[in-house]
Amino acid sequence: MSSSQKVRASHILIKHEGSRRKSSWKDPEGRRISSTTRGQAVAQLKTIRDDILSGKSRFEDIASQFSDCSSAKRGGDLGPFGRGQMQKPFEDATYGLKVGEISDIVDTDSGVHIIMRTG
């Protein structure tokens, strides 16, 4: 497999009441997630994204603290992946970024994400 076929990314996931699985490492019972609307999740993520882009916060630090994905333990790092391994909107967004770029809000069945392409 050529290197151009795989990408590497980190992400920050905020789950909400519409998420496929309403639990996370921070919220095992899913209480907070079940009471979070998609709008609230997007608003939180927009603030986080602005803080990262302005240099106020580091992506890895915020992912470790706030992401509802178990990848939070690795600063949001998902490692390398190829086409067909992630949900389509996530894959499309990642492949559309240049290394070091951060996506706008991306919606998947898991929740809302911002993605930083790292490789």
Automatic annotation (TrEMBL):
It is an enzyme of class 5 (isomerase). Coiled coil: none annotated. Residues 1-40 are annotated as: Disordered. Residues 4-119 form the PpiC domain. GO terms for molecular function: peptidyl-prolyl cis-trans isomerase activity. It comes from the Eukaryota. It catalyses: [protein]-peptidylproline (omega=180) = [protein]-peptidylproline (omega=0). InterPro entries: PPIase_dom_sf (IPR046357), PPIase_Pin1 (IPR051370), PPIase_PpiC (IPR000297). Its EC number is 5.2.1.8. GO terms for cellular component: cytosol; nucleus. Gene3D superfamilies: 3.10.50.40. Keywords: Isomerase, Rotamase. Pfam families: Rotamase. SUPFAM superfamilies: FKBP-like (SSF54534). Belongs to the PpiC/parvulin rotamase family. Prolyl cis/trans isomerase with specificity for phospho-Ser-Pro bonds. This is Peptidyl-prolyl cis-trans isomerase. It comes from Sesamum indicum (Oriental sesame).
